[in-house]
Amino acid sequence: MPRAICLLSGGLDSATCLAVARRDGFETYALSFDYGQRHRQELAAAERVAAHLGAHAHRVARIDLRVFGGSALTDDIAVPKHRSAAEMGAGIPVTYVPARNTIFLSFALAWAEVVAAETIFIGVNAVDYSGYPDCRPAFIHAFEQMANLATKAGVEGRTKLSIRTPLLELTKAGIIHLGRSAGVDFALTHSCYDPAPDGRPCGQCDSCLLRAKGFAEAGVADPLLA
Questions:
Q1: Residue range 91-126, pLDDT digits in tens
Q2: Whole-prediction pTM value?
């Protein structure tokens, strides 16, 4: 059974990616990050999702991106609320965490070398997303090329690492349909950037609004709001 590292935040996108990897016959190794994010509730969601989808292993890497700040998720900066679709599509928002996907993929690459995985799954999306530069196809392609130059397995020609992005061209509604067909229980996921202390989603941040839009367009009720 081929092995895959699956980046798992606990949100609906990464949960769908993990489910797709399992559906496609991979032994899955789920990797989450405790990076100083204000929405640490997502880590509990990641643990639930990994268990539900039968990940062979689930690791949480602890790094502190608060030492750099520069993002509403890791610094004392207000999370934007009540933004329109046009506002969300204009420019790079303050919820962008500098170099986050580069860092996360680097950790995934390291674990892939250790467990001899030839595939990394990441739930980046270039359709219904918040304008993050590290979600673009050009970035993923460049990282994949770099990964095959930077590892012992790549240099020795033993493996050729590939990065799979099954959600890249899907709308949020399409992701929800795919996730349901692959066995995701969206009640286990967490999407909010600025949740209440008890974990309830704010319903107003970009992530909550994109989630709500996706469920509405998919014609499916969000189980977190039931």
A1: 888 999 999 999 999 999 999 999 999 999 999 988
A2: 0.94
Angle, to 10 degrees, between the axis of helix 137-150 and the axis of helix 100-115? 40
Cα 189 to Cα 13, 43, 109, 166: the distances in Å are 9, 10, 25, 18
Q: Is 30 exposed, middle or buried (0-12, 13-18, 19+ CB in 10 A)?
A: buried
Beta bridge partners of 4: 28, 119
Q: In what order do the strands lie in the sheet with 27-34?
A: 57-62, 27-34, 3-7, 119-121, 162-164
Longest Cα–Cα distance of the chain, Å, equals 52
The domains of the chain are located at 3-225
Superfamily of domain 3-225: HUPs (3.40.50.620)
